[in-house]
């Protein structure tokens, strides 16, 4: 079967790598792809916002499965357009993608379905937002309602910070995404991510991971899209995983189906492990980046079979995905300036040497200019390795990273630190 993958980041390079391994995959297309993906797929310059053009392409190339990587085309309804034209799509409908596209929608759904999450208020003006802050007190969390490229959330430790965040949202910093906001109770605990695949009725647990959102070592500095991750996240014990499934994921999938907007695709759950059990921080309607990279390094079963069964509403008919017991860990190499304005054009060399020892280097923000690989985005490479423990995978990932010559880039040196510390305690 011919497959079209949409997206251009490290997540999509990992997806392409795994899709291309499947005996079910004939020709793999990617739009727009990146130089790493180009070694596995035919890249094409399709514009994902032009739904008619994507449909024409799928007809011309006889595409049997479309895999949508990022959230923007999902929230924009591309999967509805493609399904309407008769294509199988991995990714939720526009109505179901509201689980990521509107924080207020998700909080209301949690309230209706009794799903554990922080207390909240939805507000549509600065005055209402400031009044709500008085009721919550600090610390408190302020979220722009819509998609804000990961920048719409402020965890405010003081009332002054909280008030600034409310004022910024209603001054228009996030445009339409900030027409509404959610004021939310501050939750305390360790964060983890859990992923499930669902076709709207059957729910299949996928894997867990832990991301590192702050730019600096020791989780300091501004928030980013994620500077590194590892999988599995052992802090999410089998017991906590089961609780997350029964108390959060399954009731969400049931509620979405009952309300006429069944959710089909991957459900990415951000969880706070509080003293009262796992609580939902947020949903995303896609794989995490870079969480996807580490989970797919561990996936032993056929990704095409899984995503196709999901797209065709027959997840109950296939075997559960199988994962290696090893840990996978990825370190993001970012361009200087990230998460502000990243420096573009810096040369990159040494990827083959880095991969010689078994590591895998996924391209996240690279371009080929006159045959030279250069940086073209904030997050540039994901250096990924597996090992018997987080400590072992971390050592292998950094050994590979140190073989890469990227003078205008930087990375955190402590990815996996929480688990490395726990492993040292248990040694
Ligand atoms: P999000 O963009 O929703 O992933 O939020 C970004 C980050 O803000 C999360 O990864 C958490 O670290 C933090 N956060 C979000 N909501 C809360 C909350 N209710 N309590 C504490 N931290 C939160
Ligand atoms: N790494 C976090 C995300 O993909 O949203």
Give the helix/strand class: alpha+beta
Question: How would a crystallographer describe the biggest sheet?
Answer: 9 strands, antiparallel
Mean pLDDT: 96
**Which consecutive residue ranges, at least 5 long each, have pLDDT under 50?**
none
Shape verdict: globular
Q: What is the total tally of β strands?
A: 22
Q: Distance N terminus to C terminus? A: 48 Å
Question: Helix tally?
Answer: 14
Radius of gyration: 21 Å
Q: Which range best describes the helical content: under 10%, 10-25%, 25-40%, 40-55%, 55-70% or over 70%?
A: 25-40%
* Attached small molecules: adenosine monophosphate, glycine
Report the sheet-strand fraction.
Answer: 25-35%
Describe the structure.
This protein is an alpha+beta fold. It is built from 14 helices and 22 strands. Strands 10, 11, 14, 15, 16, 17, 18, 21 and 22 form a nine-stranded antiparallel sheet that branches. The N and C termini lie far apart (48 Å). It has helices spanning 10-20, 51-60, 71-75, 78-84, 98-101, 103-113, 126-136, 159-170, 238-258, 291-298, 303-311, 351-356, 390-401, 417-426; strands at 2-7, 28-32, 42-43, 63-68, 89-90, 120-123, 140-144, 153-156, 181-185, 190-198, 203-211, 214-216, 220-223, 228-231, 265-274, 277-284, 327-335, 360-363, 366-369, 372-375, 379-387, 409-410. Helix content is 32%, strand content 28%. Helix 1 packs parallel to helix 10 (291-298), helix 6 (103-113) crosses helix 9 (238-258) and helix 7 packs antiparallel against helix 8 (159-170). The chain is globular. Adenosine monophosphate is lined by residues 118, 141, 150, 153, 155, 184-187, 191, 213, 270, 281-282.
């Amino acid at each position: 079967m011919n497959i079209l993958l949409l997206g251009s980041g490290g997540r999509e390079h990992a997806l392409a790598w795994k899709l291309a391994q499947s005996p079910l995959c004939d020709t793999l297309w990617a739009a727009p792809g990146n130089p790493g993906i180009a070694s596995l797929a035919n890249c094409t310059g399709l514009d994902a916002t032009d739904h008619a053009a994507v449909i024409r392409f799928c007809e011309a190339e006889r595409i049997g499965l479309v895999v949508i990587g990022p959230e923007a085309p999902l929230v924009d309804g591309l999967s509805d357009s493609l399904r309407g034209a008769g294509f199988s799509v991995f990714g939720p409908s526009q109505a179901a993608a509201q689980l990521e596209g509107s924080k207020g929608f998700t909080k209301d759904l949690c309230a209706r379905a009794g799903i554990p999450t922080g207390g909240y208020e939805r507000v549509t003006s600065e005055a209402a937002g400031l009044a709500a802050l008085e009721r919550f007190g600090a610390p408190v969390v302020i979220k722009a309602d819509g998609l804000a490229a990961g920048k719409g959330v402020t965890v405010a430790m003081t009332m002054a910070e909280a008030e600034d965040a409310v004022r910024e949202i209603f001054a228009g910093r996030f445009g339409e995404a900030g027409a509404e906001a959610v004021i939310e109770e501050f939750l305390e605990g360790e964060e983890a991510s859990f992923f499930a695949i669902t076709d709207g009725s059957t729910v299949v647990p996928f894997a867990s991971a832990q991301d590192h959102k702050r730019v600096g070592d020791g989780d300091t500095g501004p928030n980013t899209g994620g500077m590194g991750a590892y999988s599995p996240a052992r802090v999410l014990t089998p017991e906590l995983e089961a609780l997350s499934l029964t108390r959060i994921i399954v009731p969400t999938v049931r509620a979405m189906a009952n309300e006429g907007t069944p959710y089909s695709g991957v459900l990415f759950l951000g969880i706070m492990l509080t003293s009262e059990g796992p609580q939902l921080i947020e949903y995303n309607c896609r794989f995490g980046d870079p969480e996807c990279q580490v989970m797919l390094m561990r996936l032993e079963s056929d990704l095409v079979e899984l995503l196709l069964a999901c797209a065709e509403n027959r997840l109950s008919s296939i075997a559960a995905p199988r994962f290696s017991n090893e840990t996978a860990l990825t370190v993001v190499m970012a361009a200087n300036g990230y998460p502000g304005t990243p420096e573009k054009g810096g040369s990159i060399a040494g990827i083959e040497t880095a991969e010689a020892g078994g590591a895998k280097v996924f391209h996240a923000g690279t371009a080929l200019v006159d045959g030279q690989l250069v940086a073209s985005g904030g997050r540039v490479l994901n250096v990924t390795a597996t090992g018997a423990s987080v400590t072992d995978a971390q050592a292998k990932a950094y050994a590979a990273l140190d073989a890469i010559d990227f003078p205008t880039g930087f990375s955190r040196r402590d990815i996996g630190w929480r688990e490395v510390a726990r492993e040292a305690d248990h040694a």
